[in-house]
């Protein structure tokens, strides 16, 4: 008999849990899109978004998911035939490279596999080898949502500078914004891509591109940019509709206003610390389980792990069996093992992920971990003891 009655918990790495305040803000009649409250509210979103990205630069909002934001960023600074360097640490680096191919840009991929971050020395060497300076941008993923690798973007910038290369640094922060520490200006990032459905706690549908003056100069040198993707009118509109290239995503904006108010109320530093502590609690539990069974974290080095998502593996098909049991019996949905093996490969059923981004707290994380442990016990999956005690000790501050 299932015990999944009650409120379900979506513990996947996006869409993340939506706060009640966001849901309440969106649950309203359609507003006037020509004057009044919506117009007055929208201009106030821009500085608050810039604050979350830690930038004094420009902000463009798109009605899109993260893939759309990828394309928007590329369209403004790269022309067909241009070359980019993509240090890939999992599925999403390859995904951005594929979007680049689709708009006629040629990606050179430096593949670091699925269990290691970008090696700055190897990146620097690739840029030094580009003596003709054909590479126009480096497309770096801050957190790869599939592998849970967190890359050192400050180190990526240092490698670009050490090579004396003029390439733009473009960062995918879709999974990391408002979860992991990110300092756009201080780290020398020229273009940042983000989306609404993860750390910003709003339903999928909004993409964001942040860009500095160096990137704006690159845009000014472009022969053309499509009317819809052009970030110029969006970042500096003369009329309200130009923020969105047409009709505004009204209810998403109301939800975003509520989410940004929550972020401002908690503060970015406390938000980063909350995510870090909850991530360490999850890792402690997983380490304990792994002492007596096959469960293992994808990344052995804690400094390389995201604070928003944890990628794990079991002996197949136990990853899928565990996900199915936890969803059906406990009302907790875990993430699939995205990109770790082909769906037709039996190994695919050994991977899964835990999302812990945005609107999460200790009781949610401990409940998820307890449900996973119950699932392993019910399914006879070998695992070590003391996992929940280890997680609780981290949350209480006893094992930092």
Question: Overview of this structure, please?
Answer:
Strand 5 (135-141), helix 6 and strand 6 (168-172) form a beta-alpha-beta unit. This protein is an alpha/beta fold. The protein has helices at 20-26, 37-53, 66-77, 91-102, 120-129, 153-162, 213-220, 231-235, 250-266, 268-290, 318-330, 362-379, 387-396, and strands at 9-11, 58-64, 83-88, 106-111, 135-141, 168-172, 191-195, 205-211, 296-297, 309-313, 332-336, 351-355. The chain contains 13 helices and 12 strands. Helix 5 (120-129) runs parallel beside helix 6 and helix 10 runs antiparallel to helix 13 (387-396). The protein has 2 domains: 9-16 and 267-396, Aspartate Aminotransferase, domain 1 (Alpha-Beta Complex); 31-265, Aspartate Aminotransferase, domain 2 (3-Layer(aba) Sandwich), CATH 3.40.640.10. The strands form 2 sheets. The protein has a 7-stranded mixed sheet with strand order 2-8-7-6-5-3-4, with helices on both faces. A 5-stranded mixed sheet has the order 1-11-12-10-9. The model has no long low-confidence stretch (mean pLDDT 97).
What name does CATH use for the topology of the largest domain? Aspartate Aminotransferase, domain 2
Distance between the termini: 39 Å
The total tally of domains equals 2
Strand order in the sheet with the most strands? 2-8-7-6-5-3-4
Largest sheet at a glance? Answer: 7 strands, mixed
In total, how many beta strands? 12
Average pLDDT level = 97
The proportion of strand residues reads 15-25%
Based on CA inertia axes, which overall geometry fits? globular
């Amino acid at each position: 008999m299932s015990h999944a009655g009650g409120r379900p918990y979506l513990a996947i790495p996006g869409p993340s849990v939506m706060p009640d305040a966001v849901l309440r803000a969106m649950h309203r009649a359609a507003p006037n899109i020509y004057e009044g409250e919506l117009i007055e509210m929208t201009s106030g979103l821009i500085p608050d978004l810039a604050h979350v990205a830690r930038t004094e630069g420009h902000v463009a909002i798109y009605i899109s998911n993260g893939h759309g934001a990828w394309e928007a960023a590329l369209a403004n600074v790269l022309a067909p035939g241009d070359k980019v360097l993509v240090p890939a640490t999992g599925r999403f680096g390859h995904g951005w490279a594929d979007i680049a191919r689709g708009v006629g840009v040629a990606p050179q991929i430096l593949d670091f596999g699925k269990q290691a971050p970008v090696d700055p020395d190897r990146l620097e060497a690739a840029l030094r080898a580009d003596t003709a300076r054909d590479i126009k941008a480096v497309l770096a993923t801050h957190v790869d949502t599939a592998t849970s690798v967190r890359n050192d973007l400050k180190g990526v910038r240092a490698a670009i500078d050490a090579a004396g290369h003029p390439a733009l640094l473009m960062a995918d922060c879709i999974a990391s914004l408002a979860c992991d520490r990110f300092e756009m200006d201080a780290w020398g990032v020229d273009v940042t891509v983000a989306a609404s459905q993860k750390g910003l706690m709003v339903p999928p549908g909004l993409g964001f591109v942040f860009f500095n003056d160096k990137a704006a100069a690159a845009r000014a040198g472009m022969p053309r940019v499509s009317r819809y993707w052009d970030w110029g009118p969006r970042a500096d509109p003369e009329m309200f509709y130009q923020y969105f290239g047409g009709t505004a995503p009204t209810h998403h904006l109301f939800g975003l206003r509520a989410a940004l108010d929550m972020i401002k109320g908690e503060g970015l530093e406390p938000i980063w610390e909350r995510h870090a502590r909850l991530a360490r609690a999850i890792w402690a539990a997983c380490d304990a389980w792994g002492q007596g069974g096959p469960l293992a974290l994808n990344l052995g080095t804690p400094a390389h792990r995201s604070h928003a998502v944890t990628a794990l593996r079991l002996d197949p098909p136990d990853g899928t069996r565990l996900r199915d049991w936890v969803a059906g019996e406990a009302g907790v949905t875990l993430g699939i093992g995205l990109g770790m093996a082909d769906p037709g490969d039996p190994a695919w059923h050994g991977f899964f992920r835990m999302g812990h981004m945005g609107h999460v707290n200790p009781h949610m994380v401990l409940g998820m971990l307890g449900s996973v442990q119950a699932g392993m016990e019910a399914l006879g999956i070998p695992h070590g003891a003391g996992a929940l005690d280890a997680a609780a000790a981290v949350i209480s501050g006893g094992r930092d």
